[in-house]
């Protein structure tokens, strides 16, 4: 997601400036398996944008046969690392668009 709106350098700069995207909650349902060396494809959608959080839905597929191996829901927070203050995610991302 971040790579689609920011360059890798800008993401790195954002982290060095003290903004982090902490994980508040992760739910994983395993549907299949992958073994060491398998490539996977991760499809990501934004499920919900709140005041200080974004909820992502991920589906993870084994690349060689496109079998679904996991469904993930992840809530991420935008936060100032120095103060632990939550940031308004809409305001934060608007500054990059």
UniProtKB/TrEMBL annotation:
Domain (Thioesterase): residue spans on this chain: 18-66
Pfam families: 4HBT
InterPro entries tied to this protein: HotDog_dom_sf, Thioestr_dom
Name the record gives this protein: Thioesterase domain-containing protein
